[in-house]
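Question:
Write out your own:
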Amino acid sequence: MLGAPVARAQTTSPNDTPREKLAQTTMKFLALSMDPRAAALGDAVTAVEGMPAALFYNPASMARQTNVANVNVAQTQWIFNFTHNAAAASFSPAEGRYGVVGVSLQHVDYGDDFIETIRANNTQGYDELGTYHPTAYAVGVGYAKALTDRFSIGGHVKYASLDLGNPVESRSSDGSLTRVEAKEGTVAYDFGMLYRTGYKSLNFAVSARNFSPEVTFVRESAQLPLALRIGVAMDLVDLTRLDASTHQLNASVDALNSRDYPEQIKVGVEYGFMNTFFLRGGAVTRGGEQTLSGGFGIQKVLRSGLGFGADYAYTDMGVLNTFGRVHRLGLRFSF
């Protein structure tokens, strides 16, 4: 038995193209970056604290919220005139002694109606049956708690739904159509942990997004876009003699493992002046068409304690820019 040769299921050689089962998920809007600041940083925000949109990335990072409430609304102008809308709010009662509670909402507007077709034996190969308009949304609630002065945990439960209309399942010899419903909803879970290392402002974090059972549309089953992340973040001004109240230079790095594409490294850098004006940039390895991003933001806190901010991000989509450039706008409020 020890001398038996290795038996392989298929012949392989060094010249073979590696085969990976990728791009097999549904409800892809759950994987899209919803926050302009995060998108400008290449989504390398797993270990970044103080983000009003933390529920969409790592719920544990909202555990040390200093304000009573944070509200974030954002819109993404995606390719093909798709529009993604998102809102998140987090509340920290009793100065956070009981943790932080958050709620989230996502909605996708797919723009113009889609033309419905069916295969036919004619010169063009199909018949047009009219139009349809898909819809998608997700609503969720989250909770985060700082267990010690360094360690925080958080979770996010959401219900996601995708409605593809009533497609044709079959056509009889007399031309009558049999339609089926292609609408599914499921509950998904996000988890996160954040650890303050104690070395200056260095943070370490891990998160998992979109845990859920498979969903089945008519006869085809698919999973949600599960993603596992490990990240670090730090204000590099801590390593210099610059005045930290005037200058901020936040750097973050994430390692991402996803069902949809090969492992990626995401890097983000944010320069802040007087904690008011911000310039941001990000890069992604093996990101396909999404490799570089950038943006800017402003924020201000009034004497009354009311704070507000605005953010913009642009993502370079490579050849996909032909189908529309990706812009993100967001507004933030705190009190």
